[in-house]
Amino acid sequence: QVQLVESGGGLVQAGGSLRLSCAASGSVNTMGWYRQAPGKQRDQVAAITNGGSTNYADSVKGRFTISRDNAKNTMYLQMNSLKLEDTAVYYCFAKIRFTNSYVWGQGTQVTVSS
User: Fold this and answer.
1) Deepest of 51, 75, 87, 114, by most Cβ within 10 A of its Cβ?
2) Which helix (H) or strand (E) holds 67?
3) CA-CA distance, 105 to 114, in Å (whole number)?
4) 6-28, pLDDT tens digit by residue?
5) Strands 10-13 and 108-113, how do they pair?
6) Buried-state track 49-80, b at ≥16 Cβ within 10 A, e below 16
7) What whole-number distance in Å separates Cα of residue 99 and Cα of residue 60?
8) Rounded CA gap, 70 and 74, in Å?
9) Binning pLDDT at 50, 70 and 90, where does residue 78 land?
10) Residue 112, H or E segment
């Protein structure tokens, strides 16, 4: 069973930067990030295919950059110019190769303070 391990969350001041990582224990295709703020639904932030095609939520375009190292089965989310509204638990997900199944990471807290 493929597992995802996230790292890199934390507390940062508004305008600062954080980098999240998500390492997969097996072969995966599309990977991405969702986030969930208290009392709100989980929303997709960004995604990236094996070939490097990306898409972003409008709220993070120009500030966040998703990337991946296929050799390491690891994905990254570089978050710059962080805003208070970026505060949430960030979850990575991945589609397991040769299946229609998805796996999720355990979540990592990102808190942006004023």
Assistant:
1) 75
2) strand 64-69
3) 28
4) 999 999 999 999 999 999 999 99
5) parallel
6) eeeeeeebeeebeeebbbebeeeebbbbbebe
7) 29
8) 6
9) very high
10) strand 108-113
pLDDT band at 64 (very low <50, low <70, confident <90, very high): very high
Q: Return the SS3 of 18.
A: strand
Instruction: Look up tokens 């996230």; give the residue.
Output: 6
Please check whether residue 53 is in contact with residue 87, taking contact to mean a CB–CB distance below 8 angstroms: no
> Do the beta carbons of residue 33 and residue 90 sit within 8 Å?
yes
Can you count the helices (H) and strands (E) in the chain?
Answer: 0, 11
Ordered DSSP codes for 85-103 = GG-EEEEEEEEETTSS-EE
The separation between CA 104 and the C-alpha centre of its own chain, rounded to angstroms, equals 10
Across the range 66-93, mean pLDDT stands at 97
**What amino acid is encoded at 22 in this protein?**
C
